[in-house]
Amino acid sequence: MPSTLSYPGVYVEEVPSGVRTLVGVSTSNTAFVDFFPRGPMNEPVRITSFDEFERVFGGLDTRSEASYAIRQYYLNGGSIAFVVRVATGTPLRSQIALVSTVDGDPKVVMLVEAVDEGKWGDSLQVAVDHLTAPDPATGVPLTNEFNLAVREVQTISGRRRVVRSEILRNLSLDKGKARYAVDAVGSESQLVRLIEQPNPGVRPDATTTAEVKDVTNPVIVGDPTTGEKSLGSGENHRYVFRSHADTAHAGGTVNAGDDGDPPDAGALIAGVNTLDQITPEIFNLMCVPRAAELDGAGSESPNLRAAIEPITKYCGDRRAFLIVDIPSTIDTPAKMTDWLTANENIRDRNAAIYFPRLLVPDPLNENRSRNLGASGTIAGLFAATDARRGVWKAPAGTDVSLTGATLATKITDLANGGLNPFAINAIRNFPIFGDVVWGARTMDGADIQASEWKYVPVRRTALFIEESLYQGLKWVVFEPNDDGLWAQIRLNVGAFMHNLFRLGAFQGNTPSKAYFVKCDADTTTQTDINLGVVNVAVGFAPLKPAEFVVIKIQQIAGQIAA
Fold this sequence. Notes:
The chain is of the alpha/beta class. It has helices spanning 50-57, 65-75, 181-188, 265-273, 302-317, 333-342, 375-389, 413-419, 456-472, 483-502, 511-514, 526-530, and strands spanning 30-34, 45-47, 81-85, 95-102, 105-114, 124-129, 145-156, 159-172, 192-196, 248-249, 252-253, 285-287, 321-324, 351-355, 358-362, 368-372, 406-407, 425-430, 434-438, 515-518, 537-540. The protein folds into 3 domains: 30-88 and 261-458, Rossmann fold, CATH 3.40.50.11780; 95-253, no CATH class; 474-562, no CATH class. Helix 4 packs parallel to helix 5.
């Protein structure tokens, strides 16, 4: 009723419908954790293409299994990845010193530091000039401002080339100015950040040829003797650049960059835990290719287990699914079953494992093949199948063929029959169809376990529904816990489940046979209400893949009457 009825007539009031649209979450956002040559350390970054991965994390690196896995992910249909760079040892940022000379006394006033750790920062060169914008009031250039140019130089096909460049103008060492150098560079530069030294207010000297020890290396941009070209402003010709190797100060030589070492189990686990930072976004699939290489040859893999067990638990807590890679030494079906038997502790309903490993072209090794775990390729195929058919469709079969990879080991029907009861998903080669995924079991799907979560699509459908309801029912918290709320919950959850039914996600030809939603006095008792609890019961009849197709043929004796 309107709050005030002040005059005779007709009053119109909009009544809330109680319908809150419950939207399904993503199903194939994939997290990759590994060593990379550049990029933020221990910080998840959202990546949407391999080109973007190359820009942020440096692309392929022979030390990084995941760099090749990410390329395979996008080749096979992947869309969104969350990439975490980890390492052991002591990764360092490359630094270059900027000096200010007063009365013949040079002092370091600024350190230019690569934005991320790694040797890639050693390829950075910087330059300074004082040709800044004049004071609007006097027309005289300000004596405490400077311009900073930065470029990254790489050797490509035997020639040194500028691959990135930036010019940051009218920087000041006055913290009260809008263009305070530390803040301006920190927010605008994709290559460096500044660390001010205890000489406040004194701008760095302009770089000149005389200050550069080796003018053949940090050459002037556009010098025809080298063929280098700048990607920045045409004004770059006035700059003389120098690298960390050309600078030193009273405290010693300025730091060179250091990549650190490939991660151990502890570093991988720590990197995985940083995925908490992506909230409110979520990841659905996890690939940790490096874990397969933590141990040497042998049937047992204690370091792999030390990594996989907590990572699997992390995935389960976040309703995500792990694709486990196998060590490169596992190259026969017999070795595969022996290895998994020796490492039974890694089995989980929220994980799947595939045999054999794959061979992919390696541009860093004259395009020779690199032996690679299958996780990145499989994650891409999961994503492609989800987009084409839905998460309830098994990511396997003749229409799930590999791109950019071949099998390291080809297996027969008989060998496949030995893998399947162990819940080891085969990747097979068939005439006409090529290399295809030929298994859809979770690691909880061994025959002897008789698990209700035997199949990958059943488990992933459940995770999808759980996460969608978890995200979509947050509005319920602190609402009055009574019949009105229960009716709204039934309406909203029922609409969501019915939409999945219409899309073919469940067994059953009627809604009542396909799913149910209960939220009433039977599910939520007075004791529950007193404790502030509302219980929602949701069930569904999952689609299970036709894993075995049996064709019965019978010969009919005699004639058939017309």
